[in-house]
Automatic annotation (TrEMBL):
The keyword Manganese does not apply. Keywords: Dioxygenase, Iron, Jasmonic acid signaling pathway, Metal-binding, Oxidoreductase, Plant defense. Belongs to the iron/ascorbate-dependent oxidoreductase family. It catalyses: jasmonate + 2-oxoglutarate + O2 = (1R,2R)-12-hydroxyjasmonate + succinate + CO2. It comes from the Eukaryota. One of its GO terms (molecular function) is metal ion binding. PROSITE patterns: FE2OG_OXY. GO terms for biological process: defense response; negative regulation of defense response to insect; regulation of defense response to fungus; regulation of jasmonic acid mediated signaling pathway. PANTHER family: OXOGLUTARATE/IRON-DEPENDENT DIOXYGENASE (PTHR47991). This is Jasmonate-induced oxygenase 2. Gene3D superfamilies: B-lactam Antibiotic, Isopenicillin N Synthase, Chain.
Length: 374
């Protein structure tokens, strides 16, 4: 142990905590699920106002938009391109979420990515502890978000790793089992970086900007990319718990590979929770807070959460495409009306994401608290 290393402390409402360790022993949700409990431990029981409530859910047939990208990135202009781009624009403004098919990523790679991670999470808990994470970077095997002692917990375990920038990408921090996991995830990450860059160009163009405007604001090629793989074990009382509490994503854009056999993601639309029905081999694209800020709130980051299941486990892969961590992000000048100041003051992504890393997921409270006073 390095005796010269200084502990880093961060402030919460309950005082300062050591950023290098969790405030209390971490319990793996997988280990709880394997006990075949008939009741739910108190720490996982959500307040009544936060629990899933089927009476508030949208009709079963309701779903987020599904957009076919076929031909959009071929390099050849087509009359269908305008229709596709218009549908993406509407989804970003009205929903903050949409599914994409014919996106250019091989279905075989998508399946291999999900199933490699499923195999990893099926390992005994002790076999995964070597990858245990800390609240400093969250990199590795984890079971909680936020560092508040005694906080309500979500019914999930996860694995978080960096893909970009290159100096943060460390294969030694990636699992070595199953044997193909590192190779598969490396290819998967490269493909999603490409797809994200293409969608970013569409988002810029749809606002009347040069197609590289959003990308340049994120740092050009010097962006950040990371992956959070979520494992939601079977839950004895799913009506009392959440796999992931309500939040909007703090980063730029999220591309989610869902478990298309088990529904779980819910998106908030007009005070109603809509359970997303994943289309086979579709990705779910989610506008994050940084794009809401860049667009001066033309595009919306939207609250979402994850419900759990008493009969089936669920595995999903959330890929995050983020700005370079030390670049101040603020509304683009072209999108700020001359008679009004920008909605948000400048803030780096490093500063911004400290909120969810310390406080955990809390609806839209962070981005709303970031609005400039009028």
């Amino acid at each position: 142990m390095n005796k010269n290393k200084k502990d880093v402390k961060i402030e919460t409402k309950r005082g300062s905590v050591n950023q290098d360790e969790w405030p209390e022993p971490v319990v793996r949700v997988q280990s709880l699920a394997e006990r075949n409990l008939s009741s739910l431990p108190d720490r996982y029981i959500k307040p009544a106002s936060q629990r899933p409530n089927t009476t508030e859910d949208a009709p079963v047939a309701t779903n987020i938009p599904i957009i076919d990208l076929e031909g959009l990135f071929s390099g050849e202009e087509s009359s269908s391109d305008d229709v596709i781009m218009a549908r993406i624009s509407e989804a970003c403004r009205e929903w903050g979420f949409f599914q994409v098919v014919n996106h250019g990523v091989r279905p075989e790679l998508m399946d291999a990515a999900r199933e490699n991670w499923r195999e990893f999470f099926h390992l005994p808990v002790n076999a995964k502890e070597t990858y245990s994470n800390s609240p400093r970077t969250y990199e590795g095997y984890g079971s909680r978000l936020g560092v508040e002692k005694g906080a309500s917990l979500d019914w999930s375990d996860y694995y978080f790793l960096h893909l970009l920038p290159p100096h943060l990408k460390d294969f030694n921090k990636w699992p070595s089992f199953p044997p193909t996991i590192r190779e598969v995830i490396d290819e998967y990450g490269r493909e999603l970086v490409k797809l994200s860059g293409r969608i970013m160009r569409v988002l810029s163009t749809n606002l009347g900007l040069k197609e590289d405007k959003f990308q340049d604001a994120f740092g050009g090629e010097n962006i950040g990319a990371c992956l959070r793989v979520n494992y939601y074990p079977k839950c004895p009382r799913p009506e009392l718990a959440l796999g992931l509490s309500s939040h909007s994503d703090p980063g730029g854009m999220t591309i989610l590979l869902p478990d298309d056999q088990v529904f779980g993601l819910q998106v908030r639309k007009d005070d109603t929770w809509i359970t997303v029905k994943p289309h086979p081999h579709a990705f779910i694209v989610n506008i994050g807070d940084q794009i809401q800020i860049l667009s001066n709130s033309t595009y919306k980051s939207v609250e979402h959460r994850v419900i759990v299941n008493s009969e089936k486990e669920r595995v999903s892969l959330a890929f995050f495409y983020n700005p370079k961590s030390d670049i101040p992000i603020q509304p683009l000048q072209e999108l700020v009306p001359t008679h009004n100041p920008p909605l948000y003051p400048p803030m780096t992504f490093d500063q911004y994401r400290l909120f969810i890393r310390t406080q955990g997921p809390r609806g839209k409270s962070h981005v709303e608290s970031h609005i400039s006073p009028r």
